[in-house]
Amino acid sequence: MLVLHDPDCLLHSTVEFIGAAAIPAHESPERLKSILATLEPSPLHDVHHLSYTNLPSSAKKALLTTITANHDTGYLQHLETVFSDWRDHDLVPADGSILPECWRFPTSIANYNVNPQPPRDIYARAGFYAFDMSSGIMKDTWASTIASANLAYQGVQTLFPPKYPTPVLQDETTAGPAPPPLNTLLTLCRPPGHHCDGARAGGYCYINNVAVAISTYRTTQQHPDTRVAVLDLDFHHGNGTQELYYADPSVLYVSIHGQDEFPYYTGAESEVGIGAGEGFNVNLPLPVDASVDAYLDKLALAVQRIREYKPAFVVVSLGFDTYETDPIGKFRIATEDYEGIARRAREALARDGVGECKSLVVLEGGYVVEKLGVNLLSWLKGWESPAEQET
């Protein structure tokens, strides 16, 4: 499989506050290093190194325009400038991280929720643009975040090349020939994105990479209402992706996740969408430590709903915090189980022709660093070699 990576995604390294202590964030550069150490030697996968930094200014502008289709411009400016602002005021050391200290809270003030404006106080703005203390901002957070979003952006461009006569898929030094037609592409997005709702960071997420992919797809196809399905396989509910498309019938969001787990306030089966989007949001929660058989039962329901929807494009939010020993998630899923999970999903989609539509796989969570590479290899093996369809 073709795999896209940007070395700048390794720069972000921050802290989080869990329980009663500030600790190095579980979402660390070592996660990506473990995956690359396993994927790059594999003859079955082709890892291409891209560079957001080296893009021409016109390409950077086009990417930012795509991101602002569903991300607040004030929030994006905050992500890009907050660390340097704090440094200018001597509020954080050069090797430090910014965490919020106060968030917006419910009140009885008239119009409090109508067009809320960021506070003037520099400390308070950190809380206005975040919803937890797991998404610290350090000097390289923006560099990694925009590079991560660019992988999703260029991944879609590579999957749908007719609108792009100039190949976008080339590394920093080699402008090779245009790649052959692709069915699935993997983007090693880091930081992950599915907890970001376009206006707030949280859950290690700063820009919603799935939303970037969908906006890019809609632009390339010039059909804003073309149906897109999102299959979220991270242990934690993708509250950000749900929020962005909760009223949008042209995006079907389907999530299998831990019941009553982070982000705690979303992910119930009763959350089905609103307005025109009602019926196009499907949550399939499972108890912590659920068996792989229970997981496969939920997967069958998820894929069946996607088949019924008949999307033109599928985005997979792929997390491995479902692994049996993950420190902040876990179902009873072993490395070898991921092959079967991916195979069942792919073959079931293929039965109604959905498997023939193109898919972008976007990396989300997973925090057993030493197992991330082999778990991903197992999943990719299953996705690329689906079992024979039943007759």
Automatic annotation (TrEMBL):
It comes from Cyphellophora europaea (strain CBS 101466) (Phialophora europaea). Belongs to the histone deacetylase family. GO terms for biological process: epigenetic regulation of gene expression. Keywords: Hydrolase, Metal-binding, Zinc. It comes from the Eukaryota. The keyword Cytoplasm does not apply. GO terms for molecular function: histone deacetylase activity; hydrolase activity; metal ion binding. Its cofactor is Zn(2+). Residues 27-374 form the Histone deacetylase domain. This is Histone deacetylase domain-containing protein. The lineage of its organism: Eukaryota, Fungi, Dikarya, Ascomycota, Pezizomycotina.
